[in-house]
């Protein structure tokens, strides 16, 4: 009887211990849920459609020469400001200088011959008045005088041509601006039409973009658009200043330029990429899309995803396909719905199936 009682007490103790252990495990499992903060992805309103664009200078010039020759000297460097008419590049011009000396000698010779012909004409004119020479002789002398004067004019025009050629060897800035590129070094052979420098106009900036053919009917010159500068994290307004009427040989893309206000140009530089929001005038929801916060995105090699909390309060990694970035938000092309609960912040490491506790 005593043995039976000891056996019963032992079984009761084991059952009690197992029950307590099971309760502790359930409590630990409940406590191990990772606390997270969630949000539902935003859906864009029917405000318009986005385009990608670039900030450019309003006026840009590629500096080149019309004459072939070696680059003797480049007087400026990229980033340097230049004034209109400032000397930028000099090209070797020894051959043209030699030709200029030849033309100068031709002018001297022609002018001397012209003076002599003028004196002959004046003398024969006097003699004709005295009936000492015939009309034919006077006409011949007059013709000789005219020919000599024409040779003087021809030589002087050749000098103008040489001077024009020399001006091509000393290249000057066509307007005030900033040197943005240098394509050649001193000693290189410059050829006609080959760029040596690039200059962009000071302060005059604009935004250029292309509009798909299915949206061109909703854009007009004078329309105000919202411009988001990705690198600066800023937004400014722009006005459509130019709109190409043709998309010939551009694949259905119409060129557009937007003017921006002077006060907004302080930190803006040519070459910056922008997003342009064109107000929607279609009356249709052409921009209905899901937008996601950038800090929610998880990267795995070439894949992108987000953690989604399901009905059982478990986090699951869902792969998505992204579109354009607009400010701090990214367009989701596929993989999410507006009702999904996206994890924005977690107090632990997440993985598929992990239990989470949503902070209220």
Largest sheet: number of strands, sense, barrel closure: 6 strands, antiparallel, barrel
Question: What is the CATH fold-level name of the largest domain?
Answer: conserved putative lor/sdh protein from methanococcus maripaludis s2 fold
Number of domains: 4
What's the rounded overall pLDDT mean? 83
Low-confidence stretches: 12-30, 283-287
Query: What radius of gyration results from the CA coordinates?
Result: 42 Å
Compute the separation of the termini in Å.
60 Å
Class of the largest domain in CATH?
Answer: Mainly Beta
Principal-axes geometry comes out as: elongated
Instruction: Provide the spatial order of strands within the biggest beta sheet.
Output: 3-12-15-14-13-16
Helix content: 25-40%
Number of helices: 3
Class computed from helices, strands and strand pairing: alpha+beta
User: If classified by CATH, what would the architecture of the largest domain be?
Assistant: Beta Barrel
- How much β-strand is present in the residues? 35-45%
Q: What's the count of strands?
A: 23
Q: H/E series, N to C?
A: HEEEEEEEHHEEEEEEEEEEEEEEEE
